Amino acid sequence: MPVIHHVSNVTVRVFLNLCSGIGQGLCEFLRDACTILLSFTIAGETFSSLAWYIVILAGQVSSHVAAGHTREIHTDAKTRYISACMTMIRSTIRSSFGGDVADILRSMKNIMMWAAKACLYPYAFLLGIVTIVVIFQLINIIDPPYVIKSKHGVDKVDYDDNPAGPPPTCNWNVHIFDRIRTLSKGSEFTPLMSKLKMVTNHRYAMGKPMICQGAPHQIPCSIRITLSLNETDLRNKDVVVFGMSATSMRDAIGMLASKRRTDPEQLWVFMTMQSPLEMRKLVPRIGSFPTHLLWSYMTSSDVVTPYAQYVTNEPMDTDNVTYGHYVRGKRKLVAWMGDNCDEKDFWPRKAYLTELRKHIHVDLYGECTNLTCLPRNSEQCGMLMSQYKFFLAFESSECREYITESFWLTALTHQSVPIVYGSKKDSYLKLAPPMSFIHISDFESPKALADYLMSLDKNDGLYSRFFKWRHSGSIKTRYPPFKPESLCKLLPYIEDMKIRKLEKETLSETKWFKSCRNKNISSIQSLRTWTPWK
């Protein structure tokens, strides 16, 4: 703060001395503006605020001297000019914290208009251009992020204006090939969207670099993130991330068809949390897409982001919690939740559910039923599901390790025993807490499953065994949401790419693409001929 005060005082003296040679009216204007500058710095504004005012005032002084204007500026124009400058500066500061860049552009329009009326024309346009350039340079340079080192060695980033830690030793540009409108529809990308600001109508960028610490290679490193679906924005980028939304992959494959030359040192990453069958349904040619890295929920991926993890030695419940606790308050038996009435399954899921309901009561939640629970991943919805003894966590695809939040969050976290299908049973045994689920492949028919559930309903001791794992471990949710600092996981691969040039492979060659039981997405077996995947 003392430094800021000193600089501001020097600035005031310089401009007031300059005033003496160019007229009383302009001197009054500069005195007023410098007083505003001093009040802002005393209030604790950043150096960037100081820079904005210096640019504006210097531009005005030079314009008046060059034009030979020594007459008094019109009072109304002067007042409006100062007001427009202040509005622009406030908008710029807000923008640096995630506001709308459109506010700055609107303020610049007012600045140029009132500068013209205040005898600065024809220098108003030049002043506006210079100010805009300086604004965006300072937004990207002056305001570094605040870095926190995680105690577990996991990358963690904060976006405060108080820089800490050593300066970055490497700087990388990461581009997300997608539409902001598409990603904004999903709540899982909210943390990322909140950090991006509009640069043009179709291009977004993070105002400040993100610094990663805890990476196994050079540390720390800074990452600048941009997002658009424009091919030209791929230039001079170290990493391009594809696949966050399925619809963007159609444009990506179209880009390949154009045979545009790509940077041989640019790292391509395909990131998805959907099953291969769902991606193939939306993008039939997805298998032909080349990538250096696969980023998915599968443990065999280059970068792994599971929906959740079971962590031992961190119990969710203490020894004081008895097994009777898990039965208390459960007044309902079985629940199922569907996202979309017209959603296409890749196994006879709806037919199995219909047959199961012939033998046991199941409450159906979703758009195609009379029961609703929205938003699905909310705590209120979770508390409602905790009133059920069982939850049908049936995935839409029969794919290995495809175990989504319906299993982890909706069921396990809220103390409802999940009845599962989608992955083979060995995937659940590998990833889920021990003795925490019921897999339908263990039963010859939906009726046999219904009989078993009703027997558990009558025996509290047997039912409570499904919660024994809570005394030795816990569930850690990983996705959603997608956090910007997740991109720090790419740092080791960026450096490898610069050193030894990683080879691309098409998605059809990956374990993710080959992980599903049914390779034909156009037809589904009938329940009569279908048998569970064991």
From TrEMBL:
Task: Report if keyword Membrane is assigned.
Answer: yes
Residues of the Fucosyltransferase C-terminal domain: 328-499
Q: Which UniProt keywords apply?
A: Glycoprotein, Glycosyltransferase, Golgi apparatus, Membrane, Signal-anchor, Transferase, Transmembrane, Transmembrane helix
Q: What is this protein called?
A: Fucosyltransferase
Instruction: Tell me what topology the record assigns in the membrane.
Output: Single-pass type II membrane protein
SUPFAM superfamilies on file: UDP-Glycosyltransferase/glycogen phosphorylase
| Chain segments annotated as transmembrane | 118-139
The family classification in the record reads:
Belongs to the glycosyltransferase 10 family.
